[in-house]
Structure prediction request, 507 residues.
Amino acid sequence: MTIAPARPTPGTLIEEFELGLDAPICLTWELTYACNLECAHCLSSSGRRDPRELTTEQCEAVIDELQRMQVFYVNIGGGEPTIRSDFWHLLQYAVDHQVGVKFSTNGSRITPERAQFLASTDYVDVQISLDGATAEVNDYVRGPGSYDTALKALQNLQDAGFQDAKISVVCTRQNIGQLDEFKALADRFGATLRLTRLRPSGRGADVWDELHPLPEQQRELYDWLMARGEDVLTGDSFFHLAAFGEPLPGLNLCGAGRVVCLIDPIGDVYACPFAIHDNFLAGNLLTDGGFKQVWQTSELFRELRSPQTGGACAKCEFFDTCRGGCMAAKFFTGLPLDGPDPECVQGYGESALDQLNQSGGRTIPAASQDHSKAGPTRNQPVMLTLTRRPDLTPPSAPPTSACAESPLAGFTPPSI
Amino acid sequence: MLDEPWTLSPSVALRPESFGALAYHFGNRKLTFLKRPELVAVVRALGEQPDVRSALVAAGVPEAQHAAYADALAGLARTDMIRPRSEGVAA
Ligand code: SF4
Ligand code: SF4
Prediction:
């Protein structure tokens, strides 16, 4: 190992991972900040392309390096990665160089032809983002029409014979009640459901207070994962829920800078895709000697891999499995990094936030970068909930159409 | 299993790590941690040895542990990390 000169004697696998590996296990690479959507909770504040975006040749060089480091697969995202005109070329290039690809997309460019191509390649996994099992819930955060787009993409993939697409859901207060519906939707498309945690990262910081699951919903999610989670992927993102009792399967640790990292569209390397902030910037692969160099020698990563204290969490009986939760979630809600997670299921995060709020000591770190579109566009989500006045129409009946001619329009005779 | 010829699956790559190795299957995209260097040595030896037992011996695994290793190997077989070899001793 090149990382720690005095590496302690190996213990459990988790302890090994906390000390870092020579190459990441879970590498996310955001190819572009450009996106045709403007999701309210976008972790990377995407929208506009960054003019410094890596060129095709620079991207190929990154792939060559990943091959040498035996990074077996990358999670490609964005922005909307398929917006890059060389996206399909880079996909092929990676696969040809023994770097498997999982890419996340909103589905807008998964045409029947692209679906055919995807079905014909091995080593490629497709994740369609969907944040509501119904258009109403999904489009609320992802923008009008985005539900139909995602479902069309899933349909195209299924029709082309693509096996086992993923439906990737960020769990929110609005959709936790739809877990069974999501599962049914996945089954309908022969897809696998993937549930991940909402973090207050990027634009997610602005809406976190409104979108993050309520304490009783966290319990609901935990119970659902325990009962039905067997074929559901979670990206190991809910390990803070381990403090409800039994840990969920998977890696129970924050892998930031240890086994996880992010390469952003301009080649900046961050500790984690949810930590795009100067505080978690390890270096740039163009100016700091390549990705391997940054991964193995950056000051920040060295620090993250050194033994950490549990801070206020060290006394907690669940620290072994919860490990204080998510670093990014703490940072972007203004909590200390060595204390409890804002969604600590023992309630310590909430009380810590309350205390900070009351004393006026809660400062939410300002974003270091933002690629959101400057003005509103037609794809922007409108986060208003439209409901009917209950005194006008019985809630179960659709509104009577203005051009309905029957004198009995809107009248449902009581059953006998 | 101990007397059968086995091998690492052709779509699996191993990445050495201080604790052992990461095994990645490009086909089914399963990532597995081989948590002991001895297990990595066994897995690598499978294809070169006439049967699993010889691979265990070649990797220096004491006989008392053969059954436990066979269990671990059976686990790897479930996700096609290793597979039975039909053609007998590898060339
Ligand atoms: S910061 Fe949060 S999202 Fe990132 S690796 Fe750690 S736990 Fe996971
Ligand atoms: S106090 Fe810390 S370790 Fe304990 S459950 Fe809360 S976040 Fe997890």
Summary: Strands of chain B lie at 6-8, 12-17, 20-25, 31-34, 82-84.
